[in-house]
DNA sequence: TATTAATTACCGAACATTCGGTAAAATTTA
DNA sequence: TAAATTTTACCGAATGTTCGGTAATTAATA
């Protein structure tokens, strides 16, 4: 019996895991094949434009996940802003597996990657900024302050992921999430 | 005539530039050869253990540069703490070319790199932390506060470099340097 | 000092391996 | 059966690495 068709989602998850940890150049077709359970040629059936299209799909997948989870939590008017912030940060914790996962933006923004994915990364980061600006405004900060805070959040998340990995200490990421919450709620 | 010896420093500078912008996997021997002016085989004459040894040398070179410039400026007792801080941040600006350069730690800490250079990156980051703790103490912060501030500095520098690159906006890095200065001097 | 040996600095060419990618056949699904 | 999907088998190019060798400088020897 021939193996059953591998689900799209499982494929994307496998690709994501590899690109995320290896970066664009570091992700080899062999590893991508092993992680997805599809042979190289099968991957090319699903992604005729090859590696680049695979990474593209990963970027879209993460973008969707962030929209459906992080941003949704932050903007869900069923809850008051404080709760939304907490929920959003909790989703971010999940996104980066408590600091164990690298950010896809980072993984795909080294030289060879940045030219290919510049646009998506730029767009993605701007969406983070505008969403966090909104939660800032909802928490009664002036627009300009909210904008600065949003930038600060983005920088601290990215920075703490790097330092977390560099020092091999997960608590750094966790502390950063707590600090972000305090920054918003102390005023 | 025997070709003149290519200066060690010139080689390291070329290697640094490539590893920094391309990452470990992305840095090809061809590119490293072009950047240094040495043919591949000659690079192997200087670095018998190949690519890994080259990246290792880059890490050491940057570490030395940071010690001789950034840390030296921060710890130079000929100046008062405020001035030292300003000078240190100015050296950091130079190190990252105002936000145009990637951090070598980041470039060499993707999966394939992190296993090889884990130790050096860990050690390097801890040196940043302890040095910035010292300037914090010199500015009359309690040891614990100074420690937290040092971590914050490291995170913000790393994060702002990522976001600067992702958004293609140099002012983000510059603003972060200003913010760091304010964080230290406002209390 | 003159001669010899060892070392240094470099390079062209080839090495095995891995890379991303493809054509065609086999298998499954409908 | 026809279309869709996966596989095997393969490719050219690029990768990191090594080999064999040249020429100049340095060190040791006599």
- H/E element order of chain A: HHHHHHHHH
Q: What is the subunit arrangement here? A: homodimer
CATH superfamily of the domain at 58-185 in chain A: Tetracycline Repressor, domain 2
Count of separate DSSP helical elements of chain A: 9
Give a quick account of the main beta sheet of chain A: strands, pairing sense, barrel closure. none
The tally of strands of chain A reads: 0
CATH architecture field of the domain at 58-185 in chain A:
Orthogonal Bundle
Top CATH class of the domain at 58-185 in chain A: Mainly Alpha
Specify the overall morphology of chain A: elongated
What CATH calls the topology of the domain at 58-185 in chain A is Tetracycline Repressor, domain 2
Which consecutive residue ranges of chain A, at least 5 long each, have pLDDT under 50? 1-6
SS-derived structural category of chain A: mainly alpha
Which protein chains make the most extensive interface, counting residues with beta carbons within 8 Å of the other chain's beta carbons?
A-B, 37 and 37 residues
Helix fraction of chain A, binned, reads over 70%
What percent strand of chain A?
Answer: under 5%
Report how far apart the termini of chain A are.
Answer: 64 Å
Computed over alpha carbons, the radius of gyration of chain A is: 18 Å
Average pLDDT number of chain A: 92
């Amino acid at each position: 019996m021939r193996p059953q068709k591998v689900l799209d989602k499982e494929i994307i998850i496998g690709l994501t895991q590899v690109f995320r940890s290896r970066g664009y150049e570091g992700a080899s077709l062999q590893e991508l094949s092993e992680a997805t359970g599809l042979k190289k040629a099968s991957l090319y059936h699903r992604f005729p434009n090859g590696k680049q299209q695979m990474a593209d799909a990963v970027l879209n997948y993460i973008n969707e996940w962030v929209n459906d989870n992080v941003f949704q939590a932050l903007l869900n008017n069923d809850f008051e802003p404080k709760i939304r912030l907490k929920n959003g940060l909790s989703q971010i914790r999940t996104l980066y597996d408590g600091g164990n996962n690298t950010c896809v933006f980072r993984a795909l923004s080294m030289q060879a990657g940045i030219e290919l994915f510049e646009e998506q990364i730029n767009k993605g980061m701007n969406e983070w900024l505008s969403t966090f600006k909104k939660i800032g405004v909802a928490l009664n900060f002036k627009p300009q302050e909210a904008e600065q805070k949003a930038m600060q959040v983005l920088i601290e998340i990215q920075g703490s992921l790097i330092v977390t990995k560099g020092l091999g200490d997960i608590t750094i990421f966790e502390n950063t999430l707590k600090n972000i919450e305090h920054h918003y709620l102390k005023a």
